[in-house]
User: Fold this.
Amino acid sequence: MLDKDMREPLFDFLDEQFGKIRVIEEKIIKGSRADVLGVLDGYIVGFEIKSDADTYTRLKTQVTDYDRFCDFCYIVVGESHRRHVAEHVPDHWGIIAVTDEGTFLDRGADDNPNAKIENQIYLMWKREMHQLLDMNGCPKYRDKSRAFLREYLVSHIDHDILKKQMTDLIFERDYTVFDEQPQLKVKKAVRKRKSTAGDRKRAHTKNYIGRKRTIR
Assistant:
């Protein structure tokens, strides 16, 4: 099964298993392109897809990059990788198999001990960082750089509160704001196409995070 054939079954599976999630596809995280990031209430979950046509050549680097950004990480594989994939990812990574017979949770994910909010803050737009400042009664710092804002937010706001606020803002993120910027006209069509497939708001029926709760 190829990557393009695995995505919709995966998204349907996430629809069934999570209470509320926003799916973002093809997001750059450090030196890797995350296939899928799932934004939940206070959590960021990463899904790296390895289809039957893929190899593990870049997986070591991808694991390191996912671990920096995601509270929980999953590798999503086709049938050909299903038997041996556990040998290629850390024990805290979950495993999801997408096959012709269906989509299966082969192993749930544990808390990722390597995720840091100092890295996750890089997922925020500058306008969202200003919203975070406003939400927490901080100075506005309208003339400051992104680097300053990231450092200030992480050092001045409780991390649990900040994470919850960050995921709330990402979940409500509106990509149509790019339509209002004429100077980005050349890139506008590309952004619109990506937002259709890559930024989904989905309603879900369960909340599952980590191996301690079992998907049935």
Observations:
- Helices lie at 3-17, 59-69, 117-120, 126-135, 146-156, 159-171, 185-198.
